[in-house]
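Data card: per-record layout.
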Amino acid sequence: MMSKQKIAVLGGGIAALTALYELTSADGWQDNYDITLYQLGWRLGGKGASGRDQQNHNRIIEHGLHQWLGVYDNAFNLMIRAYDELGRSPDQPFPTAQSAFTPVHTYVIQEPNCNDLWVTEFPTNNKFPGTKSDDPPAKIWDALVKILKWLVSEFDKIDETDVNKPQVEQPYWWDKLQEKVEADLSSEAHKLLSHALKYAESLTSDIAEHSALDWHILQWLLDKFRDWLCKEFSKFLDHHTIIRRAYIMLDLGITATIGILRDGVLIHGWEQLDKYDLREWFSRNGASDFAVNSAPMKAIYDLLFAYENGDPEKPSIVAGSTLHGMIKMVLLYKGAPIWEMNSGTGDIVIAPLYLVLKKRGVKFAFFSKVSSLRLNDNHTAIQAIEMQQQVDVKDGREYEPLIEINGLPCWPNEPLYDQLVQGQELKASGANIESRWTTWQSVGTKTLTAGVDFDKIILGISLGAFKDIAHELITHSTKWQNMVSFMGTTPTQSVQLWFKPDMKGLGWELDQPLYSYPTHDLSSWADFSQIIPTEDWGDAVKDISYLVSPLKADTPIPPPPSDHDYPDKEADRVKRNGEQFLNNQTKLSWPDVNQNGFDWTTLTDWYWRANVDPWERYVLATANTTQYRMRVDETDYEDLYVTGAWTYNIANVSSMEAAVISGKLCAAAISGKDIPVLGVKDLQPYD
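The structure for this 687-residue chain is written out next.
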């Protein structure tokens, strides 16, 4: 009989927790594995960690603005299963995953120098993400047809404009076009878009049955229509809002369709486009500079923090993976395109997973800070994991990390000092033991040894920390060198606002939005008023709003750990950014509290945060870097597995869904079992 394999899990983000959930979902898993998760500080969650401020109305303190998309089937499915296993009674807070999330269907873009908001109300449906379906995977051709239908509806908004409508010269295949759509087709330029739709609808969903001429016809029709559109409507763009917005969406939508056809996505897939930046790809396929640099395009970059080192002058995001994800988000969402949690991320996502895993028998070693991964003599495997023991738990007991607030298990925003030997000393110091720049001196060290303390390692710490902890791995592997050299990260900033008036009192008359500002500082706003009942404000707070954006790094190389003041300096910078933003950017979104500068008396409280620690920095998906993402089981070192949104994970743009998929892939690689990834075949080319 084989002995159990000891698995050391380093880091407790959503990817690592997913990997453990899947590994321990198998019957009899404890006969095969002995699992311990080692975590810096007092809580799990990684970039999704949140905490309750027990000294201030149990307010929720987040790393940032966390929203899930209606196509996050794997993340939602994980939550559905975890909540079902928790078995909360109906009278407990959030007894089911469905009760833990709120749909958001209003998306608002504020264009620069424009007093009208660009509002999109997405229709809702009765589906919930993560629920399994017997429907076949969505076909890429059906998606293109839907895009063309939407483009025709956009064009209908401007079709009555008095513009020139010339005939185009009919190509040699025009008779084939007329025969295919069974109509007497006009060759007027403004009708070519509807011709393209009719022709696309006449083709089967099985692209294996299409000919090269079919795709050539569609490209020609769309090219000629776009040429006419750009020529005839450019004179209206500065002063006609309806035409400008329709023009932008037509130009981008037509170009996306042309590019998908022209660049062979239907045959070779999306990832081949990742060598291009998204804007670069649109430009090379003929989109106008006006559309490429428009507010909707900026919003995509903002939502994905897609700026190298947070610098607004250096936007970059992989074209293929991003375009694939955006089309799925718009066409395939369940319920609503966006979902918000009804309490803190730690309360809704991380605590349930922790409770399930603990009940199953996974062990957790909090206050364990990984300092170095050491290789064996021939550099083929990790021989030792060196750690710092940050504090001691009293009487050698297991640390109990959760507190109960209004019946809900939550993570505190500080350690539970009464459980710690050095608790009062740590509390008095005010040190942040989750920070690379902490002033706190660890109380000891410990070394985990291969073959004794672990047989396999799951490295779930984020990419930004590797230069600190994985120096030997980088030195002896070209794959690791390329990954840390070419894949970038960016610091982010966030502000949370607790308002005395409700949304209408702020001057906002629409539903809860996701709102994109034209500024680069704090460029995204979401209303989180649904979480008010989970905090303890009484009547003092009627609205809660979150703001987030990348934070431009003062230097791409963070200062050494001895620069203890660095986090406070960065937090002060975020505070100043927040003050400037509220005073200068909120007149249109919150007109009733910003007539001549922001009315600070309307705030009950506010909080600002700079996410600058290496493991907190958002991992970017800049152009031409997908090939440097490491696969979970191809690490160049024996028995070392990696997981996180930064790995090669099918989605390949950092998100909660990408992290969950990575966790699933990691568990499948370790166990050798088939762990299905939901939605992986949607909008993919045929084999």
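Known properties of this structure: The chain has a mean pLDDT of 95. The two ends are 42 Å apart (CA to CA).

See the next section for split statistics.
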